Amino acid sequence: MKFILASNNKGKLKEMQAIMSGLGYEVISQSEAGLDLDVEETGTTFEENAFLKSDAACKASGLPAVSDDSGLVVEALGGEPGVYSARYAGEDKTDHDRNMYLLKKMEGIENRKAKFVSAIVCVFPNGDKITAIGQCPGEIMHEERGENGFGYDPLFYMPEFGRTMAEISSEEKNKASHRARALQEFGKKLIEYLEIKEH
Questions:
Q1: How many domains does one find in the chain?
Q2: Which domain holds residue 33?
Q3: Of the N and C termini of the chain, which has fewer Cβ atoms inside 10 Å?
Q4: Where are the beta strands (DSSP E) in the chain?
Q5: CATH number of the domain that 71 lies in?
Q6: CB burial readout 96-127, b (16+ within 10 A) else e
Q7: Is-contact 145 168, C-beta < 8 A?
Q8: Pick from 63, 149, 71: nearest CA to 115
Q9: If we measure between CA atoms, which residue out of 52, 1, 2, 61 comes closest to residue 31?
Q10: pLDDT tens across 146-196, in order?
Q11: Which residue in 55, 68, 69, 153 is the catalytic one?
Q12: Is the pTM value of this prediction over 0.70?
């Protein structure tokens, strides 16, 4: 079975392919499917935004489409950046710009608790949908550390590893990240869904 990933993010595609191929499914990007979609993310939750993206890709392609909307939720900032994680410091900013902006907002704040949240929504051509949520708890560092990953990974300290998300290997990240956890949950739900469909 072939799925379209409703995203042009190469990092997400790589992670999604690594996990989905283990379940025996092929994942292609929307550009590989010949789609040029730019969906307005107007949702107020990760789940709503993921649905908007996968629903648009499914309708445009006629294939099952899967999308992830994820971001960083910082306790002391009342849940910011949340659904605005990618646009937090303004449009056309780099990951480093966003990290610096976040550190500025966190100046003098002792509570560094944060979590990464990922919502995965898969929409099927018949209108069915599967939703899975994954979370990864951690803390915000005072400076960037590590070269792997993308986004806020260099600032996100993972107590279980004693390192930031940008300092752990891709293999470790594919087991422990919020997206990995959401994908594991999604994998279970997908298998259950397809088994029901076959009977």
A1: 1
A2: 2-198
A3: C
A4: 2-5, 26-29, 65-74, 113-123, 129-140, 156-158, 163-164
A5: 3.90.950.10
A6: eebbeebeebbeeeeebebbbbbbbbbbbeee
A7: no
A8: 71
A9: 61
A10: 998 889 999 999 999 999 999 999 889 888 989 889 988 998 998 899 888
A11: 69
A12: yes
